[in-house]
Amino acid sequence: MSNHGIVPCHGPYGGEGADAAGSECSDPAVFEVARHNRAPLKVCPVHLGPSLLMAAGVLWPPAVTVIGRT
Fold first, then answer.
1. Who's near 45: CB < 8 A, 6+ residues apart?
2. pLDDT at 1
3. How far apart are CA 35 and CA 63, in angstroms?
4. Cα dihedral sign, 47-49-60-5
5. In angstroms, how far is CA 34 from the centroid of its own chain?
6. What is the rounded CA–CA span in Å between residue 39 and residue 33?
7. How would you list the strands of the sheet with 31-33, edge to edge?
8. Strand, coil or helix: what is 31?
9. Contact at 8 Å (CB) between 40 and 62?
10. What is the rounded distance in angstroms from the CA atom of residue 25 to the CA atom of residue 12?
11. Is beta strand 31-33 parallel, antiparallel or unpaired with respect to 41-43?
């Protein structure tokens, strides 16, 4: 089975580069959370709730889109 086309989870904080500490998740992203002045945050089902509460720039009310299936 190939992992081609699978987007990894970036939750719960959505950090990039040096700010990615604590954001290691090997599960595929299923949801995309819209954020203000930042790239959308792609997260797995486990990190959806925590990302809505803790990630920087999350819109309120949240805008969540399904991008994959588990």
1. 27, 30, 31, 70
2. 47
3. 8
4. positive
5. 9
6. 9
7. 41-43, 31-33, 64-66
8. strand
9. no
10. 9
11. antiparallel
Q: How many CB atoms lie within 10 A of CB 10?
A: 24
Q: Amino acid letter at 67? A: I
- Burial of 38: CB neighbours in 10 Å, binned 0-12, 13-18, 19+: middle
DSSP result, 57-70: TB-SS--EEE----
Question: What are the pLDDT digits (tens) for 5-64?
Answer: 688 898 887 766 556 655 578 899 999 999 999 999 999 999 999 999 999 999 999 999
User: 37 is written with which tokens?
Assistant: 């002045």
Question: What sign for the dihedral angle of Cα 34, 36, 40, 43?
Answer: negative
Q: For residue 9, give Cα distances in angstroms to 12, 43, 51, 70.
A: 8, 4, 11, 12
